[in-house]
């Protein structure tokens, strides 16, 4: 065998020196997450996933927790799961707060106190959060003719998962950790194809069927018993721009959907308009103006050529 | 350092007592998966994922199994993989049957026998299932100008994965374990963004390109050689309601798509209508009435303002 | 307890003999990945995921790498991560090249040399790739009123992930390993619901918001500073067919989108048409003809019935 | 490159047919764990290791459990850990009972009841077991001049681990699952080099220093406050043989060591003899006859040549 | 809080530059595993552990394999396990052969052929190896009054594990891969405290009780039905030195132990002497001269002072 | 099937309330690791194992690190591995220091500074430590006629592993973290059966063959080129007791072994005696008095009865 025989691929010398130099130069010139001379540790997507799983297990131990729990063992499980989960969450909250513009972030003690206070409030809101989620599951059972049991809705419906992630994310958003809320929301989006901004306000008994492609924007407000199908967009029509042409952040720009509205697949509802209570918005409808309560909006038929 | 120094976050006392009590109260008042005094163990999403992976590996050992199999070793691999997989499946079937309304579920022996019989039938249908899947892969190779090899179609096309999950889910549905079928379907949905109800009937040589947002409803019937693009909906127009206003479950309400139909991206086809053989439905078309064989349906152009 | 008591399910005999025989027959009759008498080992989805994670960590160590890196430790991390990652990549490139029609694949030495050369070029293009990705992140920060920090965009935006996967996939495609490129693209698609063909050419400062359902076809060309919303399709109108009726692969058939174009949610743009620089395409627009620079295309309103 | 180039090793055909046949023949002719036509599932070493870890964590949550437990969280942790651990243990007990000669093992219901009763008793004896282990740790702290804290003794002394495994194994032995007890003892042996038969009876405040090579036989009886060093054997002198020359199992044949005895490294004490209270047995001593209380036994010096 | 507050420990700069330089200098000056300009990949302890586990599972599927195998599934399991295991082994053999002084190791093709041939022979000897191991287990059952079942001996006796590792290691040694043999032997030693050189020749029906501290040297030869207890040494008395004072490697220097010999705990037998058939060597005996068949050697008693 | 049918074991109610109460009572009455009102987090055995593996990989990248490193990649690997490892170590040092009696442990800032300083010193001593370990490996190669290569000695000799653990443990002991040192030593003991107190002082070119049962005490001092065999004890004869009868900790009580001494298997050397340079101590010798340089000590023969 001659000398051309290839050595095993692992021993290749990749001549990385100039590449590493160029990457360092690129890092230093373009963006820099050091703040006042210190690297800020980022929240961890993996740990947040564990947090959501832990909270889910504590809220619904039989469906999302451990099999074979019984009346005696269940509270030990809930208590231990919550302790582990809140210990994890408080550290993530602390990291996220460092990115909060309002905080003097090098005051570590203050930061730690804030993180603990927020996590406490999060824990305290869990029973109410559970009640909301139960209303959502009941809405799904009532709203989908294909659903046959609560277990099926909790295990097999992406809408259930998306709403669970949203309600947790919204709680974190409300408590003052928007970065963490956004990360939780994105994990839910990745799992389900349903994209709900954590700042969106959504009433009880909410149901999303199929769900892929649903988008609900930052300032959207949904009432009670709203039902959505796949690919519904509750979006912004245009973005307000300030005197300098820069985007104005946070301004109300997404729809208000009142109680008992049903929006069918592919409908697009844009701008700070109001869909009146009890309305039905048909599939693929494109709507940019408010409609009164009880409206029934549908789109024109395609033609057969 | 003064006494305000924060202890390490882990030692926070979360005062969980009242929260745990409230969660218990919420659990007890709202829903309860005990049945005749006994908790019913739920099927496991993780184990079902292993089951699908095991079946895939047994059906297509070179693509979804282990590298370096050869003519001698391949049957040992297939045999051992099937044994492990069927042992796992039979336990999941048993759990799912407990949720079946028709069964006196506390007859454990009957349940175990049913689970074994169903799993046996599932195993026996694998060769036919493989033939169907081969026809699907061939359809993809023929139908996508960007596809260059069978390997690429099997490894890189979400449509392939979605159809694989559907064919397994449909088989489980047909054999009488709809809950399990639904769970398998939802795993496939989460992986691909393609949502096919396990009860939908789909002929051979089926191809879905891109696929995100496709929805195929419970009572849809698709013929041979159907081709779909992303965001196609084969849905229900409205839900039949009984005399009491309750949804009627299981009634035919989704389209029948005959052989050799192509449906382009974003088309929405609703209701128990028939799309005649050989028809082409254009992108974004909204269709709620039957069209005869050979139809060519498209939508109006947008206008340039 | 009588003799009918079911043995533990694990000891079921599944009578696999005929099933295994039928599967073997099916394998042998239908498709065969042996080439010139030899099985070709397939690229591994898991390893490619590790490769993308490794490259991401080397490009953006603070966001996608390891917490607590500092000025001293960061280059060791980048260097070691790249070495591991390139060693993994070169083996995947070698496997993928075996599926390349142009290569005499049983010339193992040639194949290994090609794989090493390609991986070297891939490594050399990383600094330029990083610059492109930085431009994309800046575009997101500028373009989304809901975005509050670079960290949020890098951790919480599916668009960021989709573009990262695309830029790596496109680089592999350009270097001559289209199969690997396709696999990387599909992993990105599965994570984000955004489907970009690796051959598509996309300029800097690219931003996709929400993103679920976006499809960008094989021969699409996008200029600088293009912005897309969810469910936008840049697709083919029809597939060119050759004299024998077979699909012509690789022909230009997807849109050209010039610099500074914004395309809103659900717009469908089909065929080798050109969207002129600075144009805005409204939500749900269906466009199959070129529009000049500065166009503003929107669709008709739905009617309220 | 010529045709002699070796294919990748993975594709070797190993011609396993005759080997597999020969192994089957060997299995069938030599030993057979089927009992009355049924395979008996064996206890699992891995699960038993988890059980021991779980019990250890419940007994000593701060040292062997989870960091950062506090007064509020600790009982949830203990309760949840015990529930999980006992659920695992009861299944292992059930498997082990099948190997018990006294049981009609095909009475599954009886077996399950026995397993539950034994596991209940095991749980009930945990507080007493903890008290014994605390006495052992105190003895170590008092007995080793190199020991500086309880934490050091619990984390760094193989003797502590060996005694922990023994006390759990002995409890299982006493409750009627000798097979499980033996398996627990062997795991402890493998971790520490200290080999204590689970049937051996050992009083409180027991300390083994260094420990490698210690052997304590099945019928040995040790009093309170015994201290052993490495390589001490408390063994059998000879094995009683019955009229047919077969070994008589279970007969008393190992030493009785009374309270407050110290036995230095390498001493070998054989047969059913008694080492009187308060005796000291020197290093390397070979002892096969009883010694009265307060004895001081040492061996002759080596000579310098 | 003042500026002395410690940053989180992770951001410490360790000033590794000079340390890394010094380590490189040390590496380059002292020893170098490159051979003819190439690094030789070392065998992997982890993979060898998998190989031993795989072989054990194939030899004794019920005890060391998977629970719930039955007459139908067992051969698939054995076949698949062997294929995976031999594929792993052949790569380890190839690596080890590179360290063999007799081979021109840069002839990769020759090396690969040798590795395959050796692995084939290893596979072919498995049935005979199983027969030997069965004889060992029977000897344990017969020889230990505390043993109550074959299952107990296979799962709970370190001697069983040590002999299993030895018989596999010896087979590899005999087939010409002494380095691999040594590594397998050392894994067994670490698990059991029993140290048997892989070159030692040991007849059937071999039993080691307790075993910690047993050492059997490279050139030892043991007959049939030998029984050893813990801490027995079959060692070398002195090492032959050549004319230059260098150790002569491989010369016979350990004992020959004939059939049916029993050697009790702590006995030390040194040098190329012969222990005649049927002899009994007492505990702690120090023996450096041959003894005729039927001897009964014991040591003097210690004295009670 | 009647109502006696056992429910699945998992749903057993274990009635843990009184057991948990009793365990709490036991915890509170017996020992308490809270110190000044705060729980002190314990060092982690698992993390320390990672630290030792990391240091080993940095010291000997080819043998204990990653395969396929080359001249270019090796320093990146060493640098990154050290950074990760030292980040882990500094946290363990900090935890261990809390158990140090000399420190006011609630001064967190001081503690963190000490931990960093110690870890820095540890890092700085690595090159010297490597030189020592290289001398040990060379001694093994020279001293064992069965050894055939450096790779064999580094991968297959428990003595090599034991010395590696000792040299790291001794370094930590010297730097003022005896608790951590003890934990590292115990991990090494568990892996090898060789028990070396981390405070023992051992010169270069140290070799232990076989090694099971070796014990080297806290105040032992060994010179250069010492060679030990299995089961050698360098122990204390008696423990000094103070006026109150309490053990005096730390007093010199173990042997001094001068340069070039060989001690054969099973020898026991006790007390603060000196074994003169160049001496040979025979197997099983029991020695409690100093011997001059060049001594040759052996024990009497056993008798053949």
TrEMBL record, chains A, B, C, D, E, F:
Molecular function (Gene Ontology), one example: serine O-acetyltransferase activity
EC number: 2.3.1.30
BP terms from Gene Ontology: amino acid biosynthetic process
Keywords: Acyltransferase, Amino-acid biosynthesis, Transferase
Statement: the UniProt record of this protein carries the keyword Chloroplast: no
Gene3D superfamilies xref list: Hexapeptide repeat proteins, serine acetyltransferase, domain 1
Domain of life, source organism: Bacteria
Catalyses which reaction(s): L-serine + acetyl-CoA = O-acetyl-L-serine + CoA
Top EC class for this record: transferase
Family under the similarity heading: Belongs to the transferase hexapeptide repeat family.
Name of this protein: serine O-acetyltransferase
Organism of origin: Telluria aromaticivorans
């Amino acid at each position: 065998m001659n000398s051309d025989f290839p050595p095993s691929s692992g021993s290749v010398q990749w001549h990385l020196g100039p590449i590493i130099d160029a990457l360092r130069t690129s890092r230093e010139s373009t963006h820099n997450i050091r703040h006042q001379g210190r690297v800020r540790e980022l929240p961890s997507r993996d740990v947040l996933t564990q947090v959501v799983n832990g909270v889910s297990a504590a809220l619904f131990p039989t469906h999302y927790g451990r099999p074979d729990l019984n009346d005696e063992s269940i509270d030990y499980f809930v208590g231990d799961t919550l302790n582990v989960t809140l210990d994890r969450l408080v550290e993530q909250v602390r990291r996220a707060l460092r990115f909060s513009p309002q905080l003097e972030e090098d005051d570590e003690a203050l930061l730690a106190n804030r993180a603990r206070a927020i996590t406490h409030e999060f824990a305290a809101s869990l029973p109410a959060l559970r009640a909301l989620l139960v209303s959502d599951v009941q809405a799904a059972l009532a709203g989908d003719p294909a659903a046959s049991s609560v277990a099926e809705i909790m295990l097999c419906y992406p809408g259930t998962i998306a709403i669970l992630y949203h309600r947790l994310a919204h709680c974190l958003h409300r408590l003052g950790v928007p970065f963490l809320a956004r990360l939780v929301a994105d994990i839910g989006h990745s799992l389900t194809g349903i994209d709900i901004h954590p700042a969106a306000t959504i009433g009880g008994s909410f149901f999303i069927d199929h769900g892929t492609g649903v988008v609900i924007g930052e300032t959207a407000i949904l009432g009670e018993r709203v039902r959505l199908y796949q690919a519904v967009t509750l979006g912004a029509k245009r973005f307000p721009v300030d005197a300098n042409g820069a985007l104005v952040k946070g301004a109300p720009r997404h729809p208000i959907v009142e109680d008992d509205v049903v929006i069918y697949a592919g409908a697009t509802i844009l701008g700070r308009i109001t869909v009146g209570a009890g309305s039905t918005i048909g599939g693929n409808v494109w709507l940019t103006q408010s409609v009164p309560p009880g409206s029934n909006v549908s789109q024109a038929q395609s033609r057969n050529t």
